[in-house]
């Protein structure tokens, strides 16, 4: 006998797999952890088999769970696409989204392109700024949602991706290890500025700040001028730039997380659709 699987259960199942646990998944789907556990019991009962196994204190997908995951993702994606397509002719209005410079031109284009095709009557307003400036706009209700490097428990959202942080310089730049490392940095507050300075200080590498600029475009100009090196994610890399590392005497840098959060103010149907689309990946 064929069983119809509930999309809501599959959405939570996918969240558990992608977030690495029931607790994190509960935050993503805006439910309590006990509600998530109850959903998974219902899904296992519908299928007639266990989907998880205990590994230490955690519950991980077993073989059956891994087999289901691919189909669950496809079913959830098709469901969301159908809803968006059916409702697209009715949705209009304005969606306000923020994004840091680093990922505005790497993560967002794919989502905005898909959203624009499905919602031709919606006006999207994009604010590109640094994360410390975007979060107050979200809190004040001047943004519907924002991508950010700042983790927050005050808003509903999720981790979108984790990117490595690397040392970047002009393609023709040669680092003289006999001299202090010349730095090209953003001014405060900047997570990449702190990463660079902390890494060099902890390794005891002499350095000097040669150029300071609040904008990513200004940092790019300074790098192309050969003024020094900066710490950034690989999304910044262009043909005229290169990555430096331990071979040049530079210490490794920590990864950086990118999150998306939605305003605590009720979102329009269009804004909610874009938020869910970005969260679904």
From TrEMBL:
Keyword Repeat: no
InterPro entries per the UniProt record, alphabetical: LTTR, LysR_HTH_N, LysR_subst-bd, WH-like_DNA-bd_sf, WH_DNA-bd_sf
Domain HTH lysR-type: start-end pairs: 5-62
Keywords (A to Z) from UniProt: DNA-binding, Transcription, Transcription regulation
Record's keyword annotation contains Transmembrane helix: no
Gene Ontology MF terms: DNA binding; DNA-binding transcription factor activity
Cited PANTHER family: HTH-TYPE TRANSCRIPTIONAL REGULATOR LRHA-RELATED, TRANSCRIPTIONAL REGULATOR
Family to which the UniProt record says this protein belongs: Belongs to the LysR transcriptional regulatory family.
Protein name: LysR family transcriptional regulator
Species, as recorded: Nitratireductor indicus C115
């Amino acid at each position: 006998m064929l069983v119809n699987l509930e999309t809501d259960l599959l959405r939570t199942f996918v969240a558990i797999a992608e977030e690495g646990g029931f607790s994190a998944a509960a935050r993503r789907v805006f439910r309590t952890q006990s509600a998530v556990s109850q959903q998974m019991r219902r899904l296992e009962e519908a299928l007639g088999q266990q989907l998880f196994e205990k590994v230490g204190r955690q519950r991980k997908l077993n073989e059956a769970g891994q087999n289901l995951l691919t189909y669950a993702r496809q079913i959830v994606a098709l469901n969301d696409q159908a809803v968006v397509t059916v409702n697209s002719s009715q949705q209009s209005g304005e969606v306000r989204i923020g994004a840091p410079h680093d990922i505005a031109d790497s993560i967002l284009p794919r989502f905005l392109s898909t959203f624009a095709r499905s919602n031709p009557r919606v006006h999207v307003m994009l604010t590109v700024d640094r994360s410390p400036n975007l979060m107050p706009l979200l809190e004040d209700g001047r943004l519907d949602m924002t991508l950010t490097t700042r983790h927050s428990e005050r808003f509903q959202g999720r981790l979108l991706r984790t990117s490595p942080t690397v040392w970047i310089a002009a393609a023709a730049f040669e680092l003289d290890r006999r001299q202090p490392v010349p730095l090209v940095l953003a001014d405060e507050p900047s997570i990449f500025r702190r990463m660079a300075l902390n890494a060099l200080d902890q390794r005891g590498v002499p350095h000097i700040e040669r150029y300071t600029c609040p904008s990513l475009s200004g940092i790019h100009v300074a790098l192309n001028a050969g003024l020094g090196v900066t710490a950034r994610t690989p999304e910044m890399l262009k043909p005229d730039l290169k990555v430096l590392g331990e071979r040049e005497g530079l210490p490794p840098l920590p990864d950086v997380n990118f999150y998306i959060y939605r305003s605590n103010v009720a979102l329009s149907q269009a804004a909610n659709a874009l938020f869910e689309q970005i969260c679904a990946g």
